[in-house]
């Protein structure tokens, strides 16, 4: 299949309307339920640092909480970096915990290499989305077992600590569904996106964000568009 010409794809009117809402409300305050007790127990069970992932009374994580975690990312200790990783995974999983035990075991099996990979990818994320993605998905395979495109891009996204100009955006199956069915990206494919596809995705969202920034007279982040793409796929509007 020929590659879709993304330069010709317009942002759907429904997304343009959604962008009239407050960024703080749609992004910073976007909260997802989390299984705090499960995460605390499972991290301890494989003898990894970074627990507690959340206090026993915490039942929801906001994007804003993860932005705060990432505010001093380059200076984080290995323990703090892994805690940030668990919290991103917890936010991305919600109450669906499938594969997370395997992810934790994969990190425990080769912790030093995983931490090195995470540091390299998260350092590149504010500068070059495609380069950061390639660190997590070298040659189209997972650098960390069971940590595929959806969760890798969540880590790259949150590395921006909420900066409206951060280039990385989350790409998962729901976002992809809207891009194909509503936006017209016919060649996007499913699931195991190569680096050049993720780079094209981030470039598309950056163009749309720049156009909407000019229209609305404020800085629009690529995450505001990603949030609409996710929610528009139908079903539960969580993450």
The proportion of residues forming helix, as a percent range, comes to: 40-55%
Average pLDDT rating: 95
Largest sheet: spatial strand order: 1-2
Give the biggest sheet: 2 strands, antiparallel
SSE topology string: HHEHEHHHHHHHHH
Q: How many DSSP H or I helices? A: 12
List the domain count as a whole number: 1
Measure the end-to-end span.
31 Å
Strand content: under 5%
Radius of gyration: 17 Å
Instruction: Give the total of beta strands.
Output: 2
Structural class: mainly alpha
Morphology call: globular
The low-pLDDT segments are: 235-239
List keywords for this structure.
239 residues; mainly alpha; two-stranded antiparallel sheet; 12 helices; disordered C terminus; OGG-like_put
